Fold each of these.
Amino acid sequence: MSGAINDATSPSALSDKSAKIFVAGHRGLVGSAIVRKLQALGFTNLVLRGHAELDLTRQNDVESFFAVEKPQFVILAAAKVGGIHANNTYPADFIAVNLQIQTNVIDSSYRFGVKKLLFLGSSCIYPKFAPQPIPESALLTGPLEPTNEWYAIAKIAGIKMCQAYRIQYNWDAISGMPTNLYGPHDNFHPENSHVLPALMRRFHEAKVKGAKEVVVWGSGSPLREFLHVDDLADGVVFLMENYSGLEHVNVGSGKEVTIKELAELVKEVVGFEGELVWDSSKPDGTPRKLMDSSKLAGLGWTPKISLKDGLVDTYKWYLENVKQ
Ligand SMILES: NC(=O)C1=CN([C@@H]2O[C@H](COP(=O)(O)OP(=O)(O)OC[C@H]3O[C@@H](n4cnc5c(N)ncnc54)[C@H](OP(=O)(O)O)[C@@H]3O)[C@@H](O)[C@H]2O)C=CC1
Ligand SMILES: C[C@H]1O[C@H](OP(=O)(O)OP(=O)(O)OC[C@H]2O[C@@H](n3cnc4c(=O)[nH]c(N)nc43)[C@H](O)[C@@H]2O)[C@@H](O)[C@@H](O)C1=O
């Protein structure tokens, strides 16, 4: 699949360091990493708005913001995000808030003259039993994982909206599909977070209290692919500079671990010496979702940070910024 605009040297490619770039969701895990990356590369004209200053679910406010600021580039990293429990417990929020944010931001970006937009989806867009590793072409080929279908439907709508605007208006909107992410500025909430920050916090608190056991959800057998958010930010900037096609692009590490292996690794990095207890009343979710990121590798991008190094880096950040 290729788009009408597919030229790295097109005027929409990110080249000028003074280009005005709106990073939506800049206080989150992904948005903050993208800001760090852009600043490290010397970009000087970033437009940033916190949730309290600009609620992206409010269409009028979003339109007014774009009319005044007129950003040239948009990276959409604002979304309602959470782990398996949050997705399963708040389905209305996950579908409605995400549809609202992405519809407002994508449509206003087009109408107010943004040259290029990157939308972020997630590996949960693929069918629960997709072929492994999952190629981009597996989209819409089978039923979704029930614990996150509401979020996945919103994300699929975002990909399709970018494709529709490209086809109808010849507008440069692209989509990146990250695998499970982690790193500084993650959400360490005990229930609503993803597995890696949840376990880091639980092991840390158990170590501090001298607890003998830590509860881990599910069977431990599901496989997950993890990517450090600094690698993801590097990949996002690479896509902004080098890709302008119709089809979404997978962004993964290519390496997977079982949840049991992950738990053992986090336990080791944190230095907890007790036992793991598995809570089988909690859902496992998708059994496996390793993405095929060969399309991105073929464009010339590969990740650099190993899971072990990334965990050490994240725990250091947790100790300096989160723990009580
Ligand atoms: N984390 C992961 O493992 C993965 C994430 N992704 C995708 O990456 C993107 C970013 O996720 P991540 O950084 O993890 O999420 P976070 O929850 O860390 O950050 C989301 C950001 O969006 C902002 N936001 C949420 N609602 C609104 C709103 N109504 N108006 C304005 N801002 C809002 C949040 O602000 P505030 O906190 O103030 O509400 C926050 O800054 C999402 O599209 C997600 O789907 C994809 C795959 C995996
Ligand atoms: C990024 C991705 O994230 C979500 O999908 P998920 O990969 O299933 O996410 P998760 O990180 O929450 O769980 C991974 C696995 O880990 C197990 N697990 C063990 N113990 C804990 C634990 O303490 N917390 C959590 N959250 N999970 C735990 C858990 O039971 C599951 O088997 C969706 O939001 C989806 O929409 C999405 O895009």
Amino acid sequence: SACSSKLALSQVHPMWQEPLAIPGGDRQSPVDIVVRKSIFDPQLRPLKVQYDPRTCQQIWNNGYSFLVEYDDTTDKSTLKGGPLEDQFRLCQFHFHWGENNAWGSEHSIDRRLYPAELHLVHWNSDKYSLFEEAVMEENGLAVIGVFLKIGKRHEGLQKLVDALPAVRHKDSVVEFTKFNPACLLPENIDDYWTYAGSLTTPPLTEAVTWVVMKQHIEVSHDQLAVFRSLLFTSAEEQEQRSMVNNFRVQQALKGRTVRSSFS
Ligand SMILES: NS(=O)(=O)c1ccc(C(=O)N2CCN(Cc3ccccc3)C2)cc1
Ligand SMILES: [Zn+2]
């Protein structure tokens, strides 16, 4: 039942030790989005997503998740509009998932967790010249979050799933090209929640404008099972640890407002 899975969730060991003090620490992510407390903002515009599959370069297991990395040396794959004043460049996307389908997402909607969550990571190329610079600035990053639900097989995801065995171990990299991440967005990207937050992995910097999609995408049970076949550990390490539960515990809203683009 839901409560027993919640109990089990509380016994899940976080992947890294939460630091005691975080710079600022009043706009941390992820958070639970309480729908009835979100504020409709009619000034929020539709998101403008322009991704060029030719900028797709490689998949990398960084020991937290697997990242699909894009060439962000030019403005070929960009995000603007929505809550954003500037133009942002896509640099990578990755996922967070659980050991089972009861949990795995970082954000939740009225406490509802999803089995996994996609993050499309962009940095402010109007104001900064590198991701590494932008990651330290409060309007430096924009991350689109999309919930994954177990259902029908996601045809566009399969090319990615087929490449995962090649990056089973931490620090492995494989060439991966011509992948258009727009295929991972839900049909409706006009309905979203947005709030000021942070990276959910170290350095946890408070640099992120979060855009969490209301509509989820569906992937099959077997596709998500391949995510769980990845390892946190490198090929050299004795003890192999499955890459599961790579989500951060939810953080206090601390007076922040979550806005919605829909009423
Ligand atoms: N889950 S999330 O969407 O919040 C997210 C997590 C990690 C990243 C990410 O690419 N890096 C975080 C820092 N890391 C390396 C780094 C870079 C500069 C300074 C220090 C360290 C890269 C982006 C988004
Ligand atoms: Zn993430």
